[in-house]
Design goal:
The protein is an alpha+beta fold. The protein is built from 10 helices and 18 strands. The N terminus is likely disordered.
Length: about 325
């Protein structure tokens, strides 16, 4: 061993005999893929929303399925009911006012729509809920059966006649109530009070996630995602009350902090979009006249009803329609 080897060996830098060092596998640092920021897709062109007559629509035999699959977006059907027919219905409107309509902060519905009905049931004690649900669906079945006698016009038959003609030869049926008890209302009145009455930004698919307990029964038979919306204008407001379509569709994971929220939509990645401030948002406003009917893809098109102004309430009559799980029929309800 030479001088330098001895020197460095004494300092521990060089060992004359190599010692065995056990092999230690290096610690693997897990690789986390960067989270891609959610990008909202906006429609650059207007929706495929047509103004059409009943006769023209009846020639399109599979229109409901086209709506369900987004092949078409919606229709403004002129004079679905004549002004005289609407007047007959409205001449009996006191029956609505005197039969416990479901009042909300924007007006009322009759019978109670699913959101208000669900809210009422949730406040009851557990041992009273079953009876309340049963009574509700039994009463609405009677309402469905007696509508023609009570309001002079058989709107239920008119709805089913139209839906059948454009169903691709599928069965049309009012949805049975929860656990087979009675029926859902085939359609409901919606009354919006001037200066406060509106329907905040929403879509049917959002409601399906917000009121999941209510939808549990329907989803056993109806493909509620991409359900369609329909309504007839019974009384036009002085101003406001337009149906506004926003140029973007529902995406899984979108939500709101509160169903009443009318500006902020929370995106799947947690970011927020504001429909009043986003420069990419187009508002396509549709204003039906008395007796006109709207039928559109309300399940995945975000939309709202603008605040009613003036002195005249906005009164409509409508509901929802969805294809069955096995695709052999369409159910409608409200």
């Amino acid at each position: 061993m030479n001088f330098f080897t001895k020197l460095f060996s004494k300092r521990g830098i060089i060992n004359e005999k190599k010692k065995d060092i056990p092999y230690e596998k290096p610690v693997e640092i897990p690789y986390e893929k960067p989270v891609e920021k959610y990008i909202q897709e906006f429609t650059k062109e207007a929706y495929n929303f047509e103004t059409i007559t009943i006769d023209e629509l009846l020639k399109r035999e599979d229109t409901l399925y086209d709506l369900y699959t987004n092949k078409v977006d919606g229709f403004l059907i002129k004079n679905f009911l004549s002004e005289e027919e609407v007047d007959k219905i409205m001449s009996n409107f006191d029956k609505v006012l005197n039969d416990d309509p479901a009042h909300t902060h924007v007006g009322f519905t009759y019978p109670a729509v699913f959101a208000e009905f669900s809210n009422r049931i949730s406040k009851l004690e557990e041992d009273k809920k079953t009876e309340a649900v049963s009574n509700y669906f039994k009463k609405t079945k009677v309402y469905n059966s007696n509508f023609k006698n009570e309001y002079s016009i058989d709107v239920k038959e008119r709805f089913e006649g139209l839906f059948k003609a454009i169903s691709g030869n599928r069965t049309i049926k009012v949805a049975d109530g929860m656990d087979g008890m009675g029926e859902y209302p085939f359609s409901t009145y919606r009354y919006l009070t001037p200066d406060v009455g509106l329907m905040s930004v929403h879509c049917g698919n959002y409601f399906g996630k917000t009121f999941e307990d209510f939808y549990k029964d329907l989803t056993k038979k109806v493909a509620v995602e991409n359900q369609m919306s329909f309504f007839i204008m019974l009384q036009e407001p002085d101003s406001g009350g337009e149906l506004t379509l926003f140029n973007f569709r529902w995406k899984q994971g979108q939500t709101k902090n509160d169903p009443r929220e009318d500006n902020e939509i929370i995106q799947p990645d947690g970011s927020k979009m504001y429909v009043e401030d986003n420069p990419n948002i187009i508002k396509d406003k549709i204003k039906p006249k008395k007796g006109d009917m709207i039928l559109f893809q309300g399940g995945n098109i975000w939309h709202r009803v603008e605040t009613v102004t003036g002195n005249t309430p906005r009164i409509t009559f409508g509901g929802f329609i969805g294809i069955s799980i096995d695709k052999t029929k369409f159910y409608y309800w409200s």
